[in-house]
Amino acid sequence: MPRLDLSADVVALTRQLVDIESVSHHEEEIADAVESALRTLPHLAVTRRGHTIVASTDLGLGERVVIAGHLDTVPLNDNLPARLEDGILHGLGTCDMKGGDAVMLKLAADVTAPNRDLAFIFYEAEEVDSVFNGLRKLTESDPDLLQADFAILMEPSNAAIEAGCQGTMRVDVRTTGERAHSARSWKGVNAIHLAGPVLARLNDYVARQPEIDGLTYHEGLNATGIRGGVAGNVVPDECVVEVNFRFAPDRSEADAEAFVRDFFEGYDVTVTDLAAGALPGLDRPAAKAFVDAVGGGVAPKFGWTDVAQFTKLGIPAVNFGPGDPMFAHKQDEHVPTEHVERCERILKEWLS
Amino acid sequence: MPRLDLSADVVALTRQLVDIESVSHHEEEIADAVESALRTLPHLAVTRRGHTIVASTDLGLGERVVIAGHLDTVPLNDNLPARLEDGILHGLGTCDMKGGDAVMLKLAADVTAPNRDLAFIFYEAEEVDSVFNGLRKLTESDPDLLQADFAILMEPSNAAIEAGCQGTMRVDVRTTGERAHSARSWKGVNAIHLAGPVLARLNDYVARQPEIDGLTYHEGLNATGIRGGVAGNVVPDECVVEVNFRFAPDRSEADAEAFVRDFFEGYDVTVTDLAAGALPGLDRPAAKAFVDAVGGGVAPKFGWTDVAQFTKLGIPAVNFGPGDPMFAHKQDEHVPTEHVERCERILKEWLS
């Protein structure tokens, strides 16, 4: 088992984590390394569930902050081991999100007498189907371990605060016709032609941009796929438009579904995936204090992240982590070392 | 090698042919059987090219008729051997088109002193890409063997005459956008949405139905496929609508292409396949005589068939064969024995 050196600086520690391969469903080695490093710290109580590790203080400080990061990465793409060049650390997981994990480990090791109780959650399987998600599993198996006044998810957000997140919903919009040989097409009904008005509605869609807690969210309704066709000489009897609705966090799941069903009224709509967003919660005292500590502006998070898991538990949560999310899942994934250092510095100051 | 018994009745002979498996590209065995049967007939000169057999009389009769049929079938679908039940012969190839082949063999064997010179063409690979088509190859390698005043293609047409055939053209109509993450969709351009107006035009299409030689053809313009999409969280940058244009035989290939390009003006159109139709040619004396001999009406052929190969050589040609073309390529392919017998009787009378 590789050993992590918690006395190394945060960039060196990021590099150590990156060089332990941990593609989703293969987190055992990195989880072992993280667990054994945390168990050397006497001020923390460590719990493990699968390859998810929770390390908590219990100082009775009256306020608790959860800081979370996933340990897994998307598949290898010829981008390991890590490579440091001109202040940029390159490699799989540098941005999404071992830079954030390294910050968490440094906080765990160095902030031995925090001003708020802390719980660090290193979890498995964020990059795959949500049934495997370690944080989601924990919300079901051990909700007590997550109880907190505020949560910080260290997903890449350019070392600035991105608050809340938008929800996401997928539906299949299906048209049905009648097959015929294309040489006698008038004997059939072309289901692809029938999908024309579905695309026309999508073309005419105007995005809602609600302001919530001073942040402007931006919804989106898009065909992300379309399929239809039986053979080159057949009038097809089915066409399916796959639609993704990204909705602002002031909508519930039910509200989002009602909107989409109404939008495609007259068509066969099947919901294939639905996850509510998370309200920014910037009116909550713990969140306000953190925003003041970080300084600078707060941006809305457009993509869905696991902050929504905390919202389900009634815990305000923000995204705050090193790295530009545009480079997550890219072959040339990378993180500026300055981001990692800045996140470490800000959080140490806030928690000390 | 199986042997064919040319003294058997035409239904028994159909059954013999059906029971020799001959999926496209596997016609050697059936071609061997047909060739050796024909070589027992002293009034015919036999030529073989690949698995295509031509058997001709050379009586100097001043008029020549070609009768053609393909030997291959589409793939097996648990529908062999042949099964005779209540006057219907079931099995792969019964309809498309070994009933017609059996009629040709009976004519070859029994009409030893025809009133017109004859050429029988049994050819390979009609059911696959046209580069393999035995009749097409023959038009290029041995056009002399096909010279005739009139041609009969024994494709299934309910034992009645279907004249000419419509042309067929395939195009890809492509829209191009710009990729973006679907959580920030306003940063991209959705190529599937851009395909909406393409489908709208197809929806509004009104089919031309020209009358040619007293027959009413019926064109058709249909999406036979549509594809687009990168991933469930990506605004896609490309969408392709596959369109099949079936056009009346008064249009040339160039005319058909011009129509389609004009119809989709403003879009990127790529022609992927184009085959002209065949004019009915019912004004030609040989064709007229045959129509009179068969009696009854003449229908237009909507589907494309190899009659177009003869048209390219300036030879009027019709479809006339046993079986309902709606059952070609179906698991329950079958032919009424009455159709096979009627075709044999009519042709024998006309040629004797």
From TrEMBL, chains A, B:
<dbReference type="GO" id="GO:0006526">
    <property type="term" value="P:L-arginine biosynthetic process"/>
</dbReference>
<dbReference type="GO" id="GO:0046872">
    <property type="term" value="F:metal ion binding"/>
</dbReference>
<dbReference type="GO" id="GO:0009014">
    <property type="term" value="F:succinyl-diaminopimelate desuccinylase activity"/>
</dbReference>
<keyword id="KW-0862">Zinc</keyword>
<dbReference type="InterPro" id="IPR036264">
    <property type="entry name" value="Bact_exopeptidase_dim_dom"/>
</dbReference>
<dbReference type="InterPro" id="IPR050072">
    <property type="entry name" value="Peptidase_M20A"/>
</dbReference>
<dbReference type="InterPro" id="IPR010174">
    <property type="entry name" value="Succinyl-DAP_deSuclase_DapE"/>
</dbReference>
<dbReference type="GO" id="GO:0008777">
    <property type="term" value="F:acetylornithine deacetylase activity"/>
</dbReference>
<comment type="subunit">
    <text>Homodimer.</text>
</comment>
<keyword id="KW-0170">Cobalt</keyword>
<comment type="pathway">
    <text>Amino-acid biosynthesis; L-lysine biosynthesis via DAP pathway; LL-2,6-diaminopimelate from (S)-tetrahydrodipicolinate (succinylase route): step 3/3.</text>
</comment>
<dbReference type="InterPro" id="IPR002933">
    <property type="entry name" value="Peptidase_M20"/>
</dbReference>
<dbReference type="Pfam" id="PF01546">
    <property type="entry name" value="Peptidase_M20"/>
</dbReference>
<dbReference type="InterPro" id="IPR011650">
    <property type="entry name" value="Peptidase_M20_dimer"/>
</dbReference>
<keyword id="KW-0479">Metal-binding</keyword>
<dbReference type="GO" id="GO:0019877">
    <property type="term" value="P:diaminopimelate biosynthetic process"/>
</dbReference>
<dbReference type="GO" id="GO:0009089">
    <property type="term" value="P:lysine biosynthetic process via diaminopimelate"/>
</dbReference>
<keyword id="KW-0220">Diaminopimelate biosynthesis</keyword>
<keyword id="KW-0378">Hydrolase</keyword>
<feature type="domain" description="Peptidase M20 dimerisation">
    <location>
        <begin position="167"/>
        <end position="264"/>
    </location>
</feature>
<dbReference type="Pfam" id="PF07687">
    <property type="entry name" value="M20_dimer"/>
</dbReference>
<protein>
    <recommendedName>
        <fullName>Succinyl-diaminopimelate desuccinylase</fullName>
        <ecNumber>3.5.1.18</ecNumber>
    </recommendedName>
</protein>
<keyword id="KW-0457">Lysine biosynthesis</keyword>
<keyword id="KW-0028">Amino-acid biosynthesis</keyword>
